[in-house]
């Protein structure tokens, strides 16, 4: 029979492994959703962003703008129009109770220091 300390250590190790797997899964989901925004047609970016926002409520809008400016298939005026629509819808959504509770959630995007300072 194992001593109590050894059993607790094994449980703690198992818990850390589970937390690590969850973090990896959440990070991969975030990357997958970012890729879907990168691959989206200009008309679908709006839907892709709000799908992502439901899962990751702290995704910085400036990150999306930065990604869009790197795309060579979109003109600056098109990006500006998309960002204005996203900002308007995001500010309208922030008035709802769901958005207020979701805004307190910290996800993988809360660790993006560069984008969270902006």
UniProtKB/TrEMBL annotation:
GO terms for cellular component: exocyst. The chain crosses the membrane at residues 28-47. InterPro entries: EXOC3/Sec6, EXOC3/Sec6_C. It comes from the Eukaryota. Keywords: Membrane, Transmembrane, Transmembrane helix. One of its GO terms (biological process) is exocytosis. Coiled coil: none annotated. Belongs to the SEC6 family. This is Uncharacterized protein. It comes from Zancudomyces culisetae. The lineage of its organism: Eukaryota, Fungi, Fungi incertae sedis, Zoopagomycota, Kickxellomycotina.
């Amino acid at each position: 029979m194992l001593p109590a300390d050894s059993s607790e250590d094994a449980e703690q190790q198992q818990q850390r492994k589970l937390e690590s797997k969850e973090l990896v899964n959440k990070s991969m989901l975030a990357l997958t959703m970012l890729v879907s925004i990168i691959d989206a047609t200009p008309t679908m970016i709006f839907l892709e962003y709000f799908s992502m926002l439901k899962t990751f409520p702290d995704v910085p809008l400036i990150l999306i703008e930065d990604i869009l400016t790197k795309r060579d298939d979109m003109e600056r005026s098109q990006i500006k129009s998309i960002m204005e629509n996203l900002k308007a819808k995001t500010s309208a959504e922030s008035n709802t109770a769901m958005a207020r509770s979701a805004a307190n959630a910290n996800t993988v995007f809360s660790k993006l220091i560069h984008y969270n300072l902006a």
